[in-house]
Amino acid sequence: PSGSVAEGDTWTLRGANLMSILAPGMDVNKALAKAKEEASEGDMPIEIDEALDMISEDMVLTCTYVGSREVDGRSLMVIELSSEFESNLDLSDMVLEAIEAEMPPEMALDMSIVLEMAAEATGEVTWDAKAGHFVAMALEIDIVMIIDASGNMDAGGQEMAGGIEAEASMHYELTASAD
What we know:
Elements: E1 10-13, H1 15-22, H2 28-40, H3 48-56, E2 61-71, E3 74-90, H4 92-100, E4 107-128, E5 133-155, E6 158-177
Antiparallel strand pairs: 1-2, 2-3, 3-4, 4-5, 5-6
């Protein structure tokens, strides 16, 4: 937060501020600028800003100051981290645009591709207020992704239809230390 905090105070992080927690020590704005520059040199069906907006639109990390802890003679602030995130991304237009650019003109394609994502994160940051930086961080994230895709194709009178649903889950543990 930008000011002082008392036990039980909460604040939220999103966007570049959230990314700085997920990649401690990295200059997030510099990394995003480089990714945008590299993306502009190639043919990408989606811009970096759009992708980040789609992913982080509803993604919020709640931080709660829970008190202090004495570690190696230093008094450190203890901040609990938590987040729950759900999103449905309709990727149909983006994928269809990329495919149609390569399709022969006599083919017609109609498709639906939806990516459902759900995530839950919990963790802790210890912060050295005198030094003005984090000391340690631990964050666990559980993610479930479901992709549901279906489509119809007409290739010069030959018609095909199909669909797929796939689910993947991931457990991610992130730890960082400034010492």
